[in-house]
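hey m, so remember when u said the tokens were messed up on ur end? i reran from scratch. heres the input so u can diff it against urs
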Amino acid sequence: MPDARSAAAFQLAYDAMLARFPARPESRDVETPGAHTRVQVWGAVAAPPLVMLHGFKVTATMWAPNAAALGAVRRVYAPDTLGDYGFSHADKPPRNVDGLLDWLVQLLDALELGTVDIGGMSYGGWLAAHFAARHPDRVGKLVMIAPGAAFAAFSAAWYLRGLPMVMFKRKRSVAGYLRWAAVAGDDAVYNDVMDGLVDVMHAGHHNFPMFGLPLPGTIAPEVLQKIKAPALLVYGANEKMHAAERAVAVAKAAMPSLESVVIPEASHDLTMRQAAKVNAAVVAFLQR
């Protein structure tokens, strides 16, 4: 169990990321059977709903660079994924994708949301794809941003570079891994958000089980073919997780009507490094 000092450090890092949103979102605590979920909500109340699922270990606060653009066209609901770092918790955390999908259905029901657009980054994109396949009647449009291992296995370097962070849980190891998975640059706004996510992940390492979620694997073509919603796939051209173009080709083989965008000068940091281009691609897709 975390001590009071480490819990306070995580709260501070989380709040500091919320302060990076253009307007602080509404934080809701939503109860479902056996679970409590923290959801960040923003955007026009009357706009269509969009559920955005975050990447591994970075919480719903990762959407700070994208919040204004998404909130201009949608009412956005961004939960802390159950079983991951953040302020969602369960009596029995989900240990497989079926458990996560059951939680998402219960969460949407508790929020009184019927059909939604759903998207996510990395682990969140992988989970969103599974949800769209399992519950096609609940999904209007699907957005997948560098969706984990959905379409290609992780590279050996992806695992090896992460070992120091897993073994030592030091801030410099977290920063080293996130910076390696990124495209280097001197942009002050980008560096500020990256530093904030490093703080969130580092503090989370000392507050939560590191492997509380089922690990993502490639999604079988027969599962992908169950997705009925229009879908968008976005990658950074310099993705370190695996080769972006190869993943896009695999995705399109299973989903011929899939739209895709590969953004130059971006890796797994694309929602920050190229926030304007990612935002433009996603908003244009949602508005079609």
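this time it looks ok to me. The chain has one domain: 4-287. if urs says something different then somethings off w ur setup not the seq
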